[in-house]
User: Fold this.
Amino acid sequence: MATGLPSQTQVIELLDAEFTRAGYEIDDVVIDARARPPRITVIADGDSALDLDTAAALSRSASALLDEVTTAAGAYRLEVSSPGVDRPLTVAKHFRRARGRKVEVTLTDRTVLTGRVGASRADGFDLVVKAGQAGWSVRQIPLAQVAQAIVQIEFAAPTRRELELAGVSGPAGNVDTEEAGA
Assistant:
């Protein structure tokens, strides 16, 4: 390693247990040795949102672990963050974590649906979609039929019924604990 920085695999192996203890998994590691100082970005995802306090705590512990193996490299910049809202939802855990969020789903037959993610399963998820003038319906979407799915930015609050059908309650969109493990 000419840069003295660990590889992506080394960073994952070094930090995995610490992130797992905190309830997160490492989604990706990006190492930019050309930046000054070099930058190591760790993308973490979990069932609960990565808030600033947790990101700072993970950053401190990750930095201490990385300092042990990067002493020859000198200074580097470490960033710990969550995946952006523009990250495509591609696997069952992404849909589970997006429960209650509005998404645009393109199916393999090119049908485009916009709705709210409800319960998820290993092979698919429920999507709450508009049905008629003022109604909502729940559509079961198999993962095998999803070509692309992206979380949408919302500017208006969802209706209470839409949230109920998605299994989300309360003004903050708290997931019903009864179905949270789905």
